[in-house]
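Hey,
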Amino acid sequence: MDTNPQAGLHEETSFLSNLPKTEWKLAANTTLLHWKGFWLIPVIIKSAISVESQFNPLPSDILLASFPKAGTTWLKALATAILSHDSNPNNDSQTDQLQTQNPHELIPFLEMETFGENASRDINQIPSPRVFNTHLSYSILPESVKKSGCRIIYISRNPADTFVSSWHYYSKMFGTKIPLEEAFDEFCNGIIVGGPFVDHVLEYWRENGKENVLFVTYEELKEDPHKHVRRIAEFMGCSLSGDEIEQVVWQCSFERLSQLDVNKDEERVHWSGSKFNSFFRRGFVGDGKKLLSPEMMERIETLAKQRWEGSGLELKVFGA
């Protein structure tokens, strides 16, 4: 009898060769497979299957969900600072983990760092409440997660701004120089890891309002950070004073985080291969309108409106 878990995983993922596939040009022609309605790289599919079979979520767990380049780094920083203040009301520089560690070092990526073929974090060593992040769509999350009562915070962002941020990030990461228009066409057609973006956002929006799901936007956090940091803290079960909320807002501001040595370091590298400084580019709202032509803006906004019609999700949620 074969007890090798990798052999079992190979059997579970043998179907991958039969999935529809395409080449993602922005990522140097990386192969994407179409699985359960979304385009993913094979290693993520394998890891998602490992999460499904091995992850035992706890009611106290907190899952930070997002589409790539929609506010993940900021949400990780906020969750770290909120929990730090909640457990240590007299928080000072000695306990400010964000001073010396990048937000991505502090909160592990569920489907890539804690499970799968190249897991690098021991889930048993993560203190309670355990906090993870994921880029998996809601429909791909294991049923065990949805039934566990664990809290899910989803952050989203204006479609045009998400595209522009991803274009800059992946161009730098893969060294590709394809025209903006070509990358935009891929994005609108859903050809990006985790895509289609509009479907990813819609799935979590439909869960918004449930007791254990909170939907926040990058734009509302920029517009009124104190209000929405308090909202996130309360959802996480943390009671912070007005002064503590002020501290969290400052600690996690783009202006501060982008200037910390750890986040400017060009030598330290994220598990994905990205340098830590690549996670802090501009932190602006409205980059899409500045870079995209009126025709491109019309196309992406029409795409979102048509896909989200009847759901209650509208572009104005993102300040558009």
